[in-house]
Structures are given as C-alpha cells and as structure tokens.
Amino acid sequence: MLKVEHAERMLSLDNVFSTEELREWLIKTETAAGQKMPWLTELKIDGAAISLHYEHGELIWAATRGDGRVGEDVTENALQIAGIPKTLAGSGHPAVVEVRGEVFIGVEAFEALNVAQARFRADVEAEGLARNMDPAKARKSAQRRFAAFANPRNAASGGLRQQVSKKTGIEREAGDLRIASLSMLVHGIGAWPEPEVASQSEVYDLLASWGLPTSQQVRVCESADEVINRLNEIGEQRATYPHEIAGVVIKVDPFANQRELGITSRAPRWAIAYKFPPQEVQTKLLDIVVSVGRTGRATPYAVMEPVLVAGSVVRQATLHNQDVVRVKGVLIGDTVVLRKAGDVIPEVLGPVAELRPDDAREFVMPEGCPECGATLRAMKAGDIDLRCPNAKDCPAQVRGRLEHIGSRGGLDIDALGEVTAAALTQPLRPAEPPLRTEAALFDLTLEQIIDIEVDVRDGETGEPRTDPETGEAIVRTPFQRVEITYPPGFENASAMERRGAGVKKDYRRVVPSAQAETLLLELEKAKTKDLWRQLVSLNIRHVGPVAARALADHFGSLAAIREASLDELSAVEGVGAIIAQSLLAWFEVDWHLDIVNRWQAAGVRFATPDHPGPGALASIEGVLTGLTVVATGSLDGFTRDGAKEAIIAAGGKAASSVSKKTDFVAAGPGAGSKLAKAEDLGIRVLDAAEFAILVTQGPAGLDQT
Ligand code: IVH
Q1: Average pLDDT estimate for 17-35
Q2: Please, which residues bridge with residue 199 across strands?
Q3: What is the best residue among 44, 216, 255, 266 to mutate for testing ligand 1's pocket, by most ligand atoms within 8 Å of CB?
C-alpha cells in the first residue's frame, strides 16, 4: 500500500478512567494555562482515524494515522465514503489543511454488514458443495473468506484499508458493501498554521459550511461541573447514539490556549479522553475447566455462554487459581457478571446471587493433570498455584514450549504456532506423536509428519467437528495435500490423447503441503539464527529475550555460558542472581541436556560467529565507555541490530529499556513508549544523524553541532 507523510503529525490522546482523575486533569490544565477556559466535550468515536489532505479546497489524498507521521494512502476508498467531499463547498479555502476525523460503522450498518457476511458465507459454501468440494472444506473456506466481524471498530479500520479494486467476484461485492457501510465525522484540523477562526468549536462550524460531516453531540462547557454533568448525560444516552462510543473527548476550546499548552511526544496537553467504566454484562457459567500451560501451571478458567461485551464475543475468562474461584464465590451453573478489564481482558466479577439455580455446584480442583494425569502439586511451600510436575513429557507443557520456540521472541518460526505444536505432540494419528519432547524438533523429517491427522475443531465452540451425515469426526492432514495428476508420460498430454490411451483422470498422489515444506525449511534456517533466540527457545525459567540477549552478548556461546560460575553469570549486566541460579539448575537436569545435545547434533549453532569470548565485548574501550545508550524506532543508516552493535563497538552499553541510568536515547520513526519515557526522565534524545556522531565521536562530537 502506498504511504504518505502527514503534513502535520497525527497525535494520540491520553486517557483518564474516572471523574476524579478528570477533575484533577482539568485543574492541572487550567493551572498550566494560568486561567479558566471553556471546555469542548465531544464523543470519542470507536473507529479508525483518517486525515483528509485538502489543497485549495481539493482533496489531494486521504490517509490512515499509521505511526502518526506516515500513514497509508486510502484516497480511493475515502472517496466512496458518504460525506467525504472531493471538492469543498464555499470559497476562500486555505492553501493546505488536513481535516482529521474518524471513520466508523454505525450500529445498524454493522448489523446489516454481518447479515450480509452470513449470506456470502452461505452462498460460497453452497457453490463449493455444488462443485463437489469436501463439505468440511467448503464450510471452512466459506468461514475463512467471510467470517463475521467481531466489532465495528475492526470492521471499519480493515474496511478503510482494503484494496477493493484488486478484488473480483463475490469478494469485490463484499468489499464494496463494507465500504458503503462506512461513515465519517470530523474531530479536528492539522497543517493549517493560522486558521481564520479562533476555537475548536468554531472550526467545526466552518468545516460544516465546507460540506464536511460534523457531530451533533459537541458541547462547550464553562466549568468542570458542567463537563462532568455532560459526561453523565452522555453515559445515560449512550445506547441511543447511532455509533458505538469509546468515551468522551474533552478539549480546551480556544486555539490560543491550545497553542500555549502544546503537546507531549504523542498527545496534546490540551485534550484528554475520558473512558467510561467497563460495561458489565451477565451470562451463564457453564463450566470451570482446568488448562495446563508451558510452565505446568494449572489454571482454572470459566466457560460461559457466549456474550457480547465491549465490542466482542466472550466465551472464556481465566479464574487464575482455586483460591480466586473461592473468593469470587462462583458456582458452576451460576449467572455471573462479566466485564473486560482495561477493555481488553475478560474478567468474571462474581455471581448474581438471586439467580443461583438449585443444582449449582462447586468447582473442585482436579487432583491430576487434565492432560497427562500426573498429580498436581505446589512446587514451593506457600505457593497457591498448582503445577503438573511432569515437565519433561506432559503434552500440554511440551506443546506450550514448542509454541514458545516458534514465537516472535523465540526462533520466530511462523509455521510453528499453536496448531502445529498440537499436531506434532498430540495428533489423532499416528498413536506415537513425532515429538514426545522438543529434543527431536530439529530431527523432524517429512516422512514423520506427512501422515499426521488432527481433528477439526469448531472455531466458535472449540468442539471437535463431526460429519453431519456419518456422525464421524472430521479429520485433517495438515502436512499433506493430494495432487491430481496423470501417470508418467501423460502429464502434459491433451485430454484427447489421454482418453485415447485409456488413462484415468483421478490419478492421485500424496505430496507434502506448503505448511510441511515451510516448517522444515524454517527449522533449518533457525539452526543458525542469533544465539539469544536459541537461548530463549530452551525455555529456561526467567530467560526471556532481554536476559538471553545479555547472556549472548557477554558469553558468545552456550558452551561459555555452561562453563560460567554462579558469580560470573550474576555479574553480567541484565542477568543477576535469580537468572544465574535458574540457569545452573536448568543444566543440572538430564533431559534438558538431552535437548541441547540433540539440537547441537542436528546443527543448531548455539554461538555467535566471531564473538571474541566471554566478557570481551563489555570491556571495549571507546568513545562511549561507561555510557548507556538505548536505540529505538528505525534509525536511518542502521539496522536494529546494527545500532546496538555500533554502541557496543564504541565501548558503550546497548540497553533495551530506558531508565535513570540511560545516558542517551536514539529515536527514529516508530519509537513508542521508550521515547516518551526518555522525555519524562529528561534524557537527551538523538535523531539518526546525531546518533551516527555519538557512536563515532562520542558525546563531545554532539556538543560541536
Ligand atoms: S481528537 C489531537 N476527538 O481517538 C487529538 N480523537 O485515542 C487527536 N478519536 O487517534 C484526536 N473520537 O482517531 C479526537 N472526538 C474525537 C475522537 C478522537 C475518536 C480517536 C482519534 C485518535 C484516537 C486517540
């Protein structure tokens, strides 16, 4: 997709979550401005930000927010959205103005869109069946192509960015419909240094006179009390608005005060978003089930009747441990109150006592691991969490470790995700899974995986799917595909020639699927990936990407780490005693060593080529000796690793998080929280050019520029 650079940055908003916090912010802002000011309140629309770049009243381009500086060009789609004019009404428009607004899908349009998706699903499934497609495949493919949208926000932001003109047939029809369901409301301007009006509220009137869609819900309030009253009013009327709202935005109305207050690295100081307390809903607690994760921890979780909460359907929520279940006082069969904490993670609050049925029953933590049967126990005295002690070959733990190995922070193997990890450890067939532990991961062969069969589970309920006619479980062979071909010599023959020779059409052979080939190829590549990734993949407690990088940088090889003493390990910056102890304990276990030995025998490198040996890198004397530098975002002229290497080569310490000990932060586009933190702590922030000076000449070079 084409990128465009915003003429003025698109900012984000800071949030408050209670009226007390909001009052504090209002007072703080008035104090900073040195006067009382009128406040503008408006709805926070739950959609996707858009910037409309007009020059002399003509739309030049429309773009998404992107990283705030550079967004994606969505002009073609924007021009299809009702209310976005190509030419502004009236006259005397500025040479350049960027009109900022929110693209969203209204409540009714969203419902209609999902009805349409269901129709597209049914149509393509029927079409597949008419072409003799396997019924399970026809269904799955229809579901994949036309899945129901989980919430209006995602449907809107995806809809705005889709490339409809590249689509054909029914996909095109669905894409067009999705765009037709989009609406837009403006909420600001950018890149217009001296607007002809003096306040945000007046700018809305001006934009409306140019034919742009403005909200009916904008109010100017004269005091904090009035602002809070307006919030309450909006809260009460929430369900009557034509679109979902994410809260209320409160802005300083006069531009003069806005300019004076200014902006932080990411948000204006003159505006804030107030988020309503999370919506609470009720649903039925059908069961409490225990799952075992990568570290063996047994976690009870609630299985509920699906319910829509804060924009998505929720079926499950963690209950953490048996004590939490007890404290919450929920029984299986209860109607429970549910909300999304921080609007993201579903949380069961407790039962609705008056709706408790007579047959509600208490949850009892099972004694055995639900996956391998080993007796669950606390690993340390005083631990509330129970764990499965069978770390070596409990399928749930091995599966979890494999997923961790494949994850972005591990060996970053796309083909080794949740589904593949399950297929390799718990297939329906063969009875003996290809992997009992991860020791054999790098020895996997096509022969071992090609015949693997797994069950197909319903994406909604997680239940195994059965054939509606035979009642048999539907199975899938993820690592093979059946190719229809012709016997040797007839591959390229014409239909007539084949018929003449009596060659049958259904000559089938089993070949590896793309997934099988990718998995093996990616495993091969992983053998020579960075040492820190290979360390993370060993699943050593406390050794995540940060500690693994520190270990890899200091020691340069797994062999050197194994030889190091507790003191030597603890002394490494970013490692410390807990991680050091965990490492030593890990190397004490036979089956852990078996993993290392087998991986090594299969070619896993476990070393950084040309590393000068333990500690050598840390002792380089150079222009940055004794200084700690954090590089974040994309720095022109440096790759991510290149920036770190440049710091180390100059004798500095390349840290990955910003703290009081940080001396400099080099930040490029895409820098996020680290940049904000540096600004908060008053640490000097450098751009790419200054960073290049720092690593060659040291801080002295900077003072000369
Ligand atoms: S003002 C300079 N007003 O919320 C401040 N934003 O969380 C920029 N949003 O990226 C935003 N409704 O896309 C503003 N009435 C409103 C809004 C609104 C929705 C979005 C906007 C922004 C995001 C920040």
Answers
A1: 95
A2: 254
A3: 44
Is 425 within 8 Å of 405 (Cβ atoms)?
A: no
* 338 DSSP assignment: E
Determine whether the shortest distance from the Cβ of 244 to ligand 1 is under 6 A: no
| Nearest atom of ligand 1 to the alpha carbon of 48 | 13
- The tokens for 629 are 């530098």
Q: Is residue 271 within 6 Å of ligand 1 at its C-beta? A: yes
How far apart CA 101 and CA 553 sit, in angstroms, is 46
How is the beta sheet containing 219-221 ordered, strand by strand?
15-16, 271-274, 245-252, 39-45, 219-221
Confidence check: pLDDT of 663 > 80: yes
* Distance (Å, whole) CA 76 – CA 164: 9
CA angle 410, 411, 414 (to 5 degrees): 105
Domains and their CATH numbers in the chain: 3-106+182-275 (3.30.470.30), 107-180 (no CATH), 280-355 (2.40.50.140), 527-618 (1.10.150.20), 621-702 (3.40.50.10190)
Tokens of 160: 């705005």
- Under the banding of pLDDT at 50, 70 and 90, the label for residue 459 is low
> What is the C-alpha to C-alpha distance for residues 423 and 516, in angstroms, rounded to an integer?
12
**Rounded distance from Cα 60 to ligand 1 centre (Å):** 22
H helical segments located in 238-353:
255-261, 322-328
- Look up residue 368 and give its amino acid: G
Q: For ligand 1, what atom is nearest to the CA of residue 263? A: 2
Minimal CA–CA distance to 213: which of 237, 186, 232? Answer: 186
Residue 161 DSSP SS3 = helix
> What's the CA gap between 27 and 374, in Å, rounded?
59
The pLDDT assigned to 619 comes to: 57
Measure 187 CA to ligand 1 centroid, in angstroms: 7
Average pLDDT on 399-423 reads 94
Kindly give, in sequence order, each residue whose CB lies less than 8 Å from that of residue 238, ignoring residues fewer than 6 positions away. 245, 276
CA 81, CA 181: separation in Å to the nearest integer? Answer: 8
Other beta carbons within 10 angstroms of residue 345's beta carbon come to: 11
Average pLDDT of the residues in 290-310: 93
Tokens of 184: 């837009």
Q: Tell me 8's DSSP state.
A: S
CA angle 674, 679, 685 (to 5 degrees): 80
Q: Which of 90, 97, 50, 88 is nearest to 193 (CA)?
A: 97
Q: Rounded to an integer, what distance in angstroms lies between the CA atom of residue 84 and that of residue 663?
A: 47
Token pair 């909460």 is found at 309
Report how far residue 685's alpha carbon sits from residue 691's, in angstroms, rounded to the nearest whole number. 9
Helix (H), strand (E) at residue 39: strand 39-45
| CA-to-CA separations, 482 to 94, 107, 272, 447, in angstroms, rounded | 63, 44, 57, 15
Mean of the per-residue pLDDT values of the chain: 92
Which residues pair with residue 42 across a beta bridge?
Answer: 249
Alpha-carbon torsion angle 327, 331, 336, 340, nearest 10:
50
Band of pLDDT at residue 461, cut at 50, 70 and 90: low
Q: How far apart are CA 316 and CA 309, in angstroms?
A: 12
Q: Where are the beta strands (DSSP E) in 370-505?
A: 454-455, 475-476, 480-485
Helix (H, G, I), strand (E, B) or coil at 355: helix
314, β-bridge pairs: 307
| Model pLDDT for residues 678-705, shown as the tens digit of each residue | 988 989 999 998 999 999 999 988 877 5
